[in-house]
């Protein structure tokens, strides 16, 4: 009887311990007593293999929540498969500055908040949900029956690489390679191409011969070239020695030119003064011109008188009758 009661007590203790452990786990998993968590839903297109209930939800590496449910929904009408991941965000895991508004979720999504699956460990293959800001991506919202706030998702880096590889047109690449190979084969099979190495060898031989001939010519003409260079250096030295003398002569020539220019300027000034309207030579010239004009009129009058009375040359001038 004593052994039986002992067994019952041990069993009750074990059961009580399990109940307490389960309650504690649920308590801590729920974020503690009186803590309101924010449920969110995320719809992924890729495989969810490795993602389990209880997997962390991290914002830039800091755990702020966990996955609470994973649903695979199949639409019977169009056979569309939707994979919904429901999680809870613990507000106590973050510190908010300023007044928290009801539009905090929309503001974060508008700034580029996206959900992406990442690997927790390469050994276990377990996944977790990584939240980060990707403003360059489009916010795509999927149709879902969940009433929670939805966080747009983006594919993993492996899925992006796989999508890029799928978008490559391998058939077109193979056709291009085939055309290139056929072109190379045609080029190599061309008789002109096959004769090209021999022509190149001939060209190289001619080039070597021309180079040897040029070297010999330069070697023969080196003494004359050296003499020409020496003569050139001597000529340059002579010019350098005569530069001061040439400079002096140039200065003298410029001085003579300056004197001639000053003389010409003075002559022009005198001529200008002589031809001025109020100058004495100009007045004398004007008076002489007036006298010449009077003499010309007198000669014209005499000519008319002789034409009318030619006998006046014999008789002289007739005195007027009184």
Describe the structure using short key phrases.
single chain, 322 residues, alpha/beta, 3 domains, seven-stranded mixed beta sheet, 57% helix, elongated
Explain what you see.
The protein has helices at residues 2-29, 104-110, 157-167, 170-189, 191-274, 280-308, 312-315, and strands spanning 38-44, 56-59, 62-75, 80-89, 113-119, 127-133, 149-150. The protein has 322 residues and is of the alpha/beta class. It has three domains: 1-30; 36-166, no CATH class; 169-269, no CATH class. The protein has a seven-stranded mixed β-sheet. The protein is elongated and about 195 Å long. Residues 27-34 have low confidence and may be disordered.
Give the secondary structure arrangement, pairings included.
Blueprint: H1 2-29, E1 38-44, E2 56-59, E3 62-75, E4 80-89, H2 104-110, E5 113-119, E6 127-133, E7 149-150, H3 157-167, H4 170-189, H5 191-274, H6 280-308, H7 312-315
Parallel strand pairs: 1-7, 2-6
Antiparallel strand pairs: 1-4, 2-3, 3-4, 5-6
The whole-angstrom Rg is 60 Å
SSE ordering: HEEEEHEEEHHHHH
- Biggest sheet, open or closed, and with what strands and sense? 7 strands, mixed
Counting helices, strands and paired strands, the structural category is alpha/beta
The fraction of residues in strands falls at: 15-25%
**Beta-strand segment tally:** 7
In terms of per-residue confidence, which ranges show pLDDT below 50 for 5 or more consecutive residues? Answer: 27-34
Q: Determine the mean pLDDT.
A: 79
Give the number of domains.
Answer: 3
